[in-house]
């Protein structure tokens, strides 16, 4: 297809999924030929985005962050190198899986994420893409590891209960029974280490309901996990030197603190590779191929602000489009950056719902029709002259 428009938005959190945003933008463009490629950066909405690009949704029952069963989905696609599974931590272990308004900062577990990985591998996945974001837990990936056969033991040889607080009692790790035979890529743009003032507990714990006292407890648990792992042999895939697993070094790596330390757990227990979320997921949906012959790319997310400019989905889309010389505009719920900053990020213009409807409540409730109005404006300003 040539002369088409590529529509590649992320979700509008709390309002529209990425596929819904793309559908409303396409409707507003009228008869313009389009290719809809909803995107995500590894956080909430990643499974929806890749399913819209041709992956198959798989659902199964797993353990939610508070221990109750939840129905969660992941996505699969068969490729020449083997089956790929895209797993979104938030599906099984996200804050949205807790009762409305509820939190469980000390006991929330990532176990369900591990159960999703196990389900995918047992059904043929050779590579797992693990998107991190929106987690309810700060357990360093302990629950995920336990679901995959790693034993986390106290001084009495008993398996630890769920949650980050329990990690303070960790005495030994036995990874001999871990599920193997697959590779893991972590898709995340979070650069926090596991520990310290910029770590998983200090930065993200309060967002999950942790009090200052809880943060101290969680920090101690994560530190204990890293220390015991540093002296444990046989953790497949972790960086090794002279036979000793250097888990304390892994704890300081960028991304180890992602999703309450699940990044650390993936690195140490699964031998994962961390890749920039949006860039990797654009490769996964073959984004570059759809840019050939395109007239325009329309990207976006709920709020275009300073966080966007630090490498979130719209900036990743713009960077990819720039390599093909295709101009980019964005749609959003609200905009908090200026034209010059947008242009430096490769985005020609941004169109916000609040530009045409100042009532934020109505923007959320009527986001679809308002997006269609913005799309008509984009067509008039960027397509009729090209």
UniProtKB/TrEMBL annotation:
Q: What class of enzyme is it?
A: transferase
* Record's protein name: Glycerate kinase
Q: What organism is the protein native to?
A: Microbispora triticiradicis
Which GO MF term does the entry hold, naming one?
Answer: kinase activity
Which Enzyme Commission number(s) are on file for it?
Answer: 2.7.1.-
Provide the alphabetized UniProt keywords. Answer: Kinase, Transferase
Tell me its family.
Belongs to the glycerate kinase type-1 family.
Query: InterPro entries, alphabetically?
Result: Glyc_kinase_flavodox-like_fold, Glycerate_kinase, Glycerate_kinase_RE-like, Glycerate_kinase_sf
Q: Pfam families from the xrefs?
A: Gly_kinase
